[in-house]
User: Fold this.
Amino acid sequence: MHRIFRRHLPTEATVRQWLGDHPLVARILARSGFLSIHRRALARGVAVGLLIGLTPTVGVQTVLMILLCVWIRASFPAAFLVSWVSNPLTAPALYFAFNRLGEAVFGRMLAPLLSTDGLADEATRQTLYLALGSGLIAVPVALLGYGLFLAGWRYSVVSHRWPGGRGRDGRNPPGDGGNAPDGNGSG
Assistant:
């Protein structure tokens, strides 16, 4: 997995050159990890992308992702790619499900607090249900995405180092109890 990111994402130096080496942008990029391909920055980017992608923020998603990526030192390219979980084909179904979930969970609590006089009040109520329902899904999915990305990265690195449980030199990996080349510990 890490080789895919390194192969297809531009390097930070390439992006800095493309942006024209503007001093403020260069400082922000260097400090924030905004374009980093470090595993933790990528994992945070996945979490940001899932969080923003699964919330009803159409029209401001990119701006929110940029701000959140700079703030928590996440990889923006990873966030941008993952945010497409909500796209023009999936958004209507997701938003409908989020609305129903928000109404099912919070409907009885909020019904006495919200007025139902007119169309504007109904739109406000449904928008609130949509936002609350999406939060119930987006936050756990973003945390799960963060953890799964780190686990997948770790698995990718470990399986690359020890294919079939043996190191490149034919010996068992450290810590498995056998230290002889034949693996039986007899020396």
About this structure: The chain has a mean pLDDT of 80. The chain is about 65% helix and 0% strand.
